[in-house]
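Methods — Computational structure assignment.
A single polypeptide chain was analysed. Its primary sequence is given first, followed by the predicted tertiary structure written as structure tokens.
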Amino acid sequence: MTSAPDVIIGVDGGGTKTLAWIAPLADVSNTIVLARGAAGPGNPRAAGFEVAQANIAAAIEAAFRDAKLLCSTAAAACFCLAGAGREVEQQQIAAWASQQQVARSVRVTGDAEPILAAASQENVGIALISGTGSLAWGRNREGQIARSGGWGYLLGDEGSGYAIALAGLRAAVRAADKRDKPTHLLAAFTQKLGADSPQDLVAKVYGPEMTREGLAELASVVFDLKTTDSVAENIVLTAANDLAEMVVAVATQLKLPPNGYTLAMAGGVLLKQLSYVDQVVSRLQNLPQAKPGQWKLVDEPVRGAVALARALVHEK
């Protein structure tokens, strides 16, 4: 394979798609993107390693085509992948990338670090994710890292779209049974899912066509009612408190200075529900031990993957 020593590659791989950017090595501002490529899911645990690796390769190849360049060995590449938070996954992806001669230097991380890197040039602070799942991940100036949450939908994922939707559905069926207070969530979920009656929710929710991601998308029903329905309002408030608790746990572990760290937020729920962001930030503003100095929404984590790839070169 030919060499492309003047460019770097950043890859953001998730459960539904993989994005690859090619950027100039010399751009210390981390603002210039030479080309972009996309492919299918890049989560090695969810999609399988072979599928994830094939999609990573396809996204990179698409980016080189977009740049009108031959696919070449870059100076560095950083693969930031959901499902690659542990060393065992990282080593397997890194070994594959080395065999494929993707870049002279390769780093593999989970999907939280690029969010922080996109928001903080020093890569110091906390990344908070709320999408289908949830996670808080942080790094201090000494390079120490900590995390809270990210246990998956069976053990955790508090404050996520999945958790909010599930809480809403449970409140709805309890209302249908007259076991709890009435809520407009019952009618809203019934209509949203095209159910003829509350009892038909069972077939809609447990049907083979309903995925975990599809269920998480139903959180929008709860958000739509949070200003007019007390049950929905309490579900969202609880979820915001859960996310704030994750941030507090990480900030405490890392001894981050109050008013001195960046809070970078990403994930479909936080990006789409700005009032939810406000609730989380408001909760943190009242907690002296974890009050962020600044907070940012990150809609393109792949930009952080590019920054981490560039840092990989300069570390040598």
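Note: The longest strand covers residues 3-13.
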